[in-house]
Amino acid sequence: MDTLNQILFIGICLITLFRFFRLTQQNMSWSGLLSALACVLYIICLYGSALMQVAGLSSTKLLGPHILPPAQAYELGELAGNWTIELCVILLGEILAGFLVSHRQPVVPALSERNISEFNFITRNAALVLIVVGSVSTIAFHSDLSSRADGGQGLVTVLKTCLAVGLSVLAFNNFFNQRIFYFVSACGMIFLIIGAVRSPIFSVAMAFFAGKIARREITMAMLMRYSAYGLALAIAGGAMSNFRGDVLSGRGADLSTALSESIENPFIAVYGGGIDTLDGYRLAQFVQPNEPARPENILVAITTFVPRALWPEKPLDLSIDITNRYLRWDQGGIFLSLVGYLSIAFGGYIQALLALLILMIGLCGIYQKTRVNFYGFTIILMTFRLFLGGSPFDVYYCLVYNLLYAAAKFPFKLMWAGYASKTNSGA
Length: 427
Hints:
The chain has 427 residues and is mainly α. 72% of the residues lie in helices and 0% in strands. The protein starts with a helix and ends with a helix.
């Protein structure tokens, strides 16, 4: 039975990825992108991580507090069975979204020269303002890696995030095919790499990929090439995480050494570099029977915008609460995985599957309507983060991207409207 479940898991993965490749050949990659992205994360972060633990090549964060040992061979069958069901729900949600959303494709309308000038003026200037604000904030509010989890940094973190948002805007629009924007983006990426934080770098890479899909430029050859780039980026991300771990533990280390070690042992670097999706999934399975349902916790995605100084009793993210109580961590926590979080929040695995189906219908429906603009990219980013971690914070993170982008565009929209009114009056 255990072997059968693993075969079924591999089978649904092949079906999902084959569907995506077929849609890519038909120049409709957007229609199967989110399920394929979830499938890849299931393979890498759950099944691959389980195989590494079973083989003894990686450990678990649950071993220290004596919660659970690393994944065992006898667990693989049950886990693979659950993941098969979840991937079927994910695929069903994407297919249902295709039926519920209008089949008419939201093609980019033919823009007049004036409309193109308006788009370029607003978007370019908004991106540059975001990059300047983010760069200045990164320099002015420089902090050590060891203080990342300290409280009271909400506003500073949002200001620093402006850099990643601005770079993502340029990447989504293919840097407007101008050398100056390639140069600006290269300088901005240096800031992100020095910071040794993976999330903004992954965001910029995904924005570039999302822009290609929006312009319907993705081909099979390009998809294979970008997959190789993604693996290289994952190894680099593992190096950053290992470097950050060395800094926090007090061991002497530098980023170049961590990168060379990751290249020598790429699999160990990736799975030892902070991918705790499997640990969160198993921890949620372990604690869920003892935890009351807390569906209101999903509102943490909104309440995170309120500073704790103004609301001292603000509810904790469920992931942090579970980590603090069961693992006895003073700071931070491990994400519970998306299904793990939903099972605790809604009080059971069946309820989690239903919530997953509704979530996928919503994400896929919104993406199919917004894929041609920057807001569609944030849906891809949200899907990636949710299946990697599975926390309301991931929703909050993407909402911040949208709000910063909209806020940066607003003054330039007013400036253009004033210019247009003067031009019309003169005419």
